[in-house]
Specification:
Two copies of one chain form a homodimer. By secondary structure, the first copy, chain A, is of the alpha/beta class. Chain A is built from 14 helices and 14 strands. The A-B interface holds A 4, 8, 359-365, 376-380, 382, 386, 388-394, 398-403 and B 27-28, 31, 33, 54, 58-68, 78-79, 82-85, 88, 227, 341, 343-344, 346-351, 371-372, 375-376, 380-381.
């Protein structure tokens, strides 16, 4: 795709706002989906004069994680660019990663007589696990010349980052999980699956020895390693598309992903309100021309199975839409990274509603913004990875292909 | 695709008329597109009983040139078969090309004090430029052992073909344009981008020296080179599909493309009227069973931003449609090679309306022939490269796949 687009891209001054309502798509409960129940006059009106459709983040029937969902939205093939869970977790916890780093998801566990008796150390409360993680960080700063960073997640989960003195060769992360996946089994040894991973495996073995010595008297007396990974050398979003992108997102994982793609980030902590304020502040001027606005709570409500809560979050976004429209972006995209039906209380495989508003659309094919209306739109049902090409086209940034 | 189709194809006597209204698709101006405004009772009636849809020539968001647009229509992957502009132009002017040939688009220009002051030599009239081109051909037949052919196009445009004594290695055409693209700049030197192109670049330099000496006292005193290219070894349309195709087109480029695909050509100079006359003359009998009718002016009006003119050209075609229907083709296809909305004054990325009429369609899904109606048709939104398979199927030329 990059090879095709590269010679076609022409820069201009047009500005794009790209809103991701996380987990937007839903399923009917009592006959209507969250989008269909929500009172959202602004979104419905906008949809009528927009190009609408449904997009498929990975493949029909495949439920995307947040990583693949967002990679697709930004035009990266999620099957090609598989970002290790260790990296996503570390980025999500606010750790910055470089080509010198190995990132690992770690779980506190309980070991007795050589076998894992609890893979989650009794789902140790975050408060308690935080203290252990801090204690580890205080006592372990380095193994040989490799710096070690710990960062606590929820309950038994935490992140470890190993920072080597120099860039690591490809394949350095090829170390399988030590988690035996079942209680009553021995933990698996740390082992290298490639010659490049041997040095990393050696450091990890010594790190585990030290950790296990330090926590030997606790209930959480063992650490299981998962998702050993490195940041992929993923091409920069701004360079591929000739755009100057800004990420307006509060949640660590999406911020981490945006940073990975070379987007600039605003320091956002709060809710939709703070994000829209930030958009209004940064939109004028010429510093940025692509604004990725990520709104998390729609997904959270879906994950909780809270149908009414998801409806309310959609309505809340709708109330802010006039402020976005008042900025008069040349192209406005509103979509999600995947569906999260309250009915399923989880991400799902269902195609995601999308609208593209620009002066160069047919419009007039839908009566509102919903899963069923978008199924009738002029964009049809398409692969999410094509969305960025459509966005570039609508901002008149693509020359024609061939004579 | 060819590998899939080959064992499935069965020949029969059914006849296909395949009409391409160049640049057919449009966008709304004051709420309606050119197709929606046009009074076209015959097309609308036909659409109601046809399979309709929208097709995507290259990929969503990608604007196709005429070459890729037509290749897609004929079932060739336009990303695989990239045909140089020099080849298309030369074929269009009636030059036959072999694997020994390099084809170049050339423009007469005006050079003063080392810079190009007019890239089109004052849009020199064809009558005048023809005389210069004939003069060049009389005086230049060969450079070393390489034969040189000139052929005049319209106004400042002409074609040069270099015929080497033996087949050329791949990559021999890798020579960038010498056209600086802007007046007031120096012409670019001829240079080889691959070792295989060095011999060709050397011949071109010597050719330009001779040409510039011969025309030094004229207003058109310089020649700019563009689209240096070679014929791809593209499989024959007739052989792939088991058809005997005839091209009814007036414009050189489309004629050139048809010849490249091994279609036979009628000598057509004129307008829709002459093309329909020719169709009526050639349709009876058993010489041909696939009639590619190319109608250019719809696109030209779009390119000029002439909304009403495009509407008129669609209406003009509609008035001829009864004569096409009177021939009772077994399959009738009406579509475009890409969209050319008057609003954009250029080719665009928007999917192209298509109708397939045969006894084997659902029909009844649309109320007329337009972009928005076709979005609701039984063919959906699909890749243009699948159109020929649908056409073969509708002519009952494809056996079932697998037992």
């Amino acid at each position: 795709m990059t090879d095709l687009l590269k010679p076609l891209i022409q820069k201009n001054e047009k500005k794009i706002i790209f809103v991701v309502l996380d987990g937007l798509g839903g399923l009917p409960v009592n006959g209507r989906t969250e989008l269909e129940v929500a009172h959202k006059p602004n979104l419905d009106k906008l949809a009528k004069s927009s190009a609408c459709g449904l997009h498929i983040p990975v493949l029909p029937g495949i439920t995307p994680g947040s990583g693949p969902g967002h990679l697709s939205l930004f035009g990266y093939d999620p099957l090609k660019w598989q970002i290790g869970r260790g990296v996503l977790e570390a980025l999500g916890l606010g750790l910055e990663l470089t080509d010198k780093d190995i990132a690992i998801r770690a779980n506190y566990a309980t070991l007795k007589e050589g076998v894992i008796t609890d893979r989650r150390a009794g789902r140790i409360p975050t408060e308690e696990s935080s203290r252990i993680t801090e204690y580890l960080q205080e006592n372990i700063r380095k193994i040989e010349d490799v710096k070690v960073f710990f960062r606590q997640g929820m309950e038994h989960r935490f992140s470890i980052v190993l920072r080597f003195p120099q860039n690591l060769p490809e394949g350095s992360y090829m170390i399988p999980d030590t988690d035996p996946q079942k209680e009553g089994k021995e933990p698996l040894p740390v082992r290298a699956l490639s010659p490049q991973a041997e040095k990393v495996a050696d450091i990890l073995k010594r790190l585990l020895e030290r950790i296990h010595y330090l926590i030997k008297d606790k209930k959480a007396n063992y650490v299981l390693l998962r998702g050993v990974s490195m940041v992929p050398r993923i091409p920069s979003f701004g360079e591929i598309y000739g755009l100057r992108p800004l990420c307006i997102a509060a949640y660590p994982m999406y911020r981490g992903l945006a940073r990975l793609l070379g987007m600039e980030l605003l320091d956002i902590k709060g809710d939709i309100s703070e994000e829209i304020d930030s958009l209004e502040r940064t939109f004028p001027g010429n510093t940025y021309d692509f604004f990725f606005v990520h709104i998390k709570k729609v997904d959270s409500m879906g994950e909780d199975g809270n149908f009414d809560g998801k409806v309310k979050k959609i309505e809340e976004f709708d109330s802010y839409l006039p402020r976005i429209l008042a900025l008069k972006p040349d192209v406005l995209v509103i979509t999600g990274d995947h569906s999260t039906p309250s009915l399923l209380k989880s991400h799902s495989w269902h195609p995601v509603p999308v609208l593209i508003n620009s002066p160069y659309v047919l419009g007039g094919l839908v009566t509102g913004f919903s899963e069923r209306e978008c199924a009738r739109g002029e964009l049809g049902i398409f692969q999410t990875t094509h969305l960025m090409t459509l966005v570039l086209a609508n901002s008149l940034r693509l020359k024609k292909f061939g004579a």
